[in-house]
Amino acid sequence: MKRLPLTGIRVLDLSRILAAPLAAQSLGDLGAEVIKIERPGRGDEARRWGPPFLKDREGRDTRESPMYLSANRNKRSITIDLARPEGQDLVRRLVERSDVLIENYKVGDLQRYGLDYDSLKRVNPRLVYCSVTGFGQTGPYAAQPGYDTVFQAMSGLMSVTGLPDGVPGGGPMKTGPSLADFMAGQFATAGVLAALYERDTHSGEGAHIDIALLDSTIVAQTHSVATYLATGQVPPRRGTEGNGGLPSQAFACADRSVIVICGSEEQYRQFCEVLGHPELARDPRFATNSDRLHHRKELASTFGAITARWASAELLAALKNAGIPSGPVNTYPEVFADPQVQHRGVALTAEHAQAGPTRFCGSPIRFTGVADRAPMAPPVLGQHTDELLREVLGLDEAAIAALRGKAVL
């Protein structure tokens, strides 16, 4: 493979906020051309979700929020008023020349503009049309709106996240980042890729993909949900404690916390040796993983008292030498200073139209022997309107000026 796999695929991104824009961004990372269609004058609501805001070259706030920046790299922005017939016609003309459309409007909203799937498949039968909504296209909640935290709550994710009841700070808790949005975006990406494959290898026809944040967040809980469905047992909240062998949790050192995972009996014995307490491997309370499971609190307090006397760097070095999975509990500055993260090039720099050189995350998907695409910073509102109308639809300056005079652009 000498090029990114989606080179030559054109995606129309009619979505806003986070989940669906993340899906379009992922397709762009894989080589697709992504055209972000936004409302004139306002654009994606996520642009305004600050402070903080990106600073321009003079240090002043722009209208670009980190929320927007996180989901819109490798895209070009065009402004089109979908409420105007001329705007609807422009979108249909773009659809004729595109492979994928991603949207996250309320169920039925785009039908009034003639931009729903049934209408657009008559324009382009090969179109893969992906709808991302809170509750899906069907069901008693289909018309209801919602945001990430709603779905973390309704899916049960918050019920198994956080510290146990009865301890300080105990109770249900959302994850820091918007993981419901992220997971739905990744399922949407997978659905689009599957539909493109089916279209190009079998039927020659497009498809309508229905992604719900609630569904996605439930399914993404994997073994926690499987435990309940298979046994009827509800997994409790356990803070930083892992899901395999014990001890597997954060332990406080003299300067900061580290994560230690003992996934086998051998790793547990090695952990005891590293700490200078080999006798704990023979302690009847902790001799087997089953014993440790029955004495969780005593296990945590016993080992926590020992690790508190260590400097984290010394303990991590000793654990590494012993082959015990472990790592520091990093802050973001520590994450991006880490030599492994720097080697992998997780943070990229690209030229932003207002801010100049700007850092943001790239895609974690790498293809051996294929050069990554040169990163494009998230676009400012309407940055590529004229360029795209000329390049994709063949409009001349007079036609573009006429549309702008009618406030279509």
Q: Can you describe what's shown?
A:
The chain has helices at residues 19-29, 66-69, 85-96, 117-123, 148-154, 179-203, 213-219, 222-231, 265-274, 289-294, 296-307, 312-321, 332-337, 339-344, 385-393, 397-405, and strands at 10-13, 33-38, 76-79, 100-103, 128-133, 207-212, 248-252, 257-261, 326-328, 347-352, 356-361. It is an alpha/beta fold and 409 residues long. It folds into 2 domains: 10-220 and 342-405, Rossmann fold (3-Layer(aba) Sandwich), CATH 3.40.50.10540; 248-252 and 257-328, 2-Layer Sandwich (formyl-coa transferase, domain 3). Helix 1 links the parallel strand 1 and strand 2 (33-38). The longest helix has 25 residues, at 179-203. The chain is elongated. The protein starts with 9 loop residues before the first strand and ends with a helix. The relative contact order is 0.14.
